[in-house]
Amino acid sequence: MPVSRAGFARRARSKAVTLTGTLVSAGALLLTSTGPAAAAPPPADEPVKPGQAWMGAGTRLEQPHASDSGGVLGPLDTSGVQGIDVSHWQGAINWSSVKGAGIDFAYIKATEGTGFKDSRFGTNYTNAYNAGLVRGAYHFARPNASNGATQANYFASNGGAWSRDNKTLPGVLDIEHNPSGAMCYGLTTTQMRTWINDFYTTYKARTSRDVVIYTTASWWNTCTGNWTGMAAKAPLWIAHWGVTSPNVPSGFPTWTFWQYTATGRVSGVAGDVDRNKFNGSMTRLVALANNTP
């Protein structure tokens, strides 16, 4: 991720999960079916600090590894149920305008590692809800900072909780290319599988929900060794830009969310923002939020 378009180090993109109408396991559905500009990111030769990593950053930290298309950004796929993912990088957001622009869901950055809380999470989470969006929180994983259970607890205690209210999606584990070191955070494939499973198990114990996994096919296949252990548990949010259909990592039958571009524009958001779509109808999105068949 040190390579960038515009001279900046870049980060990975947001989420995509498909539901195909049936419960795959205890709660995992599979369906087929204007604010101020954000501060500039650090130069490419400067370490990426907590809170400056990828998802939710739009194109401010563009990196080839952000998607399996080598960083190539394609046309918007605005069909179906549309969403965005955001963090403090977007600055102030007019969520009523976002809703009016046809966006029905949003994932909002809450935490990273074990010591970073996004400064705009509370405002975004509340205002998105009040504007009528179905929204959820995400955690940017730092597997080299602590074990999965520790980070799952940190996330659940700082924005990643869940309630059945028609508008709260299950939390997301954003696990992708390391923004400031070895691609797989220095973990072996066995260690990475353990880390992810510990995060999943702890998050479910805290919230009763299966965590959504945001990743790319290339990262997952490389860093988990084509692991199939999450296939019947976690909905998949896949990041893959510039294509008409995303590559799905080994072990996942399909996607639930698809982050299809990082150069989206939406009324109410200043600058580029990640655009996503849900693999199903609005009724199925609410079912995912409420954990109902």
Could you give me the name of the CATH homologous superfamily? Glycosidases
User: What is the averaged pLDDT score?
Assistant: 81
Q: How many alpha or pi helices?
A: 6
**Residue ranges: pLDDT <50 for 5 or more in a row?**
1-53, 58-67, 69-74
What is the number of beta strands?
11
Main pleated-sheet profile: 8 strands, mixed, barrel
Task: Give the count of structural domains.
Answer: 1
Classify the fold: give the CATH topology.
TIM Barrel
> First CA to last CA: what distance?
39 Å
- Helix fraction, binned, reads 10-25%
The string of secondary-structure elements, in order, is EEEHEEHEHEHEHEEEH
Radius of gyration based on Cα positions: 17 Å
Shape annotation: globular
Strand % is 15-25%
CATH architect. name: Alpha-Beta Barrel
